[in-house]
Structure formats: C-alpha cells, structure tokens
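In the current project phase, work has continued on tokenised descriptions of protein folds. One protein thus recorded appears below exactly as we store it.

——
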Amino acid sequence: MKQKITLPLIVFLTSALLLAACGGTAEPVTGEIALKVGGTSFTMADLEAMDTIVVESTKKDGTIVEYTGVPVMDVLEDAGLEGETVVFIASDGYEAELAMSELEACADCVVAFDGDELRMVLPGFPGSVQVKGVIEINVK
C-alpha cells in the first residue's frame, strides 16, 4: 500500500533537520543580544536581572557621574571565563585590553547601563579602557 507524504510533514521534517544541524546554546537567548562574553550571550534583560551596584566615575572635565552596572567579574564568572587578559570590544570595532589581575582587584569595575547601550566603567583606570558601546568581552 502506498503512503502519501503531505506537504506539512515535509516542511516539519525539513525544519527539524535544519534546526538539529545548526546546533544551539545550552540556554536559549530571547531578545536582542546586548553583550557576548566568550561563548555566552546576554540580553539587556539578562544583565538587568543580575545583581547590580552603583559606582562613581570621574569624567575628563572633573565631573563625577554615577553609573549602575553589573560587576565585570560577575559577568566573567557567569560566562565561565578565565585567563590572563580581558579584551573589551566596542560596536565600532575599538578594542581595549586589561590584565585580569587588575580587574579581580577592582570591586567597582562594572559593565554599566548607559541608555540603550553598555559601557565599561572602570574607576581609577585610564580612559582608553573605559569602552563605550561595548558589545563583546573576551579573555585570552
């Protein structure tokens, strides 16, 4: 007896095969990815749900600004990253590096919420590592 394969069944099987071939992350990410940390992706909501702190940073003109953010070490630990050097990458391609040992000693270093984007706020560190528009953090 001949069996008839219907179009919906073909579409379903093709979709299932394509999804299986693509693989996936251990945890599904819903929403737009705001920050990639190694192989882990965070949405803005993911970061906002983490424990945050308020830190002060002095701008070039001497004014003090308060930022709310997630401690950088918490983000790195959540992503399971370890290494010697941390690399911050901005949306425009700018990169800055900092020794992991310096970050470990900085309780006030945060990935801060700055409107619709993220920025590195690292009080006491040079402006060159205060990356605005950070979208990725890697460790090497």
Q: What stands out?
A: Strands lie at 33-37, 40-43, 53-58, 64-71, 85-90, 95-99, 110-114, 117-121, 134-139. The first strand starts at residue 33 and ends at 37.
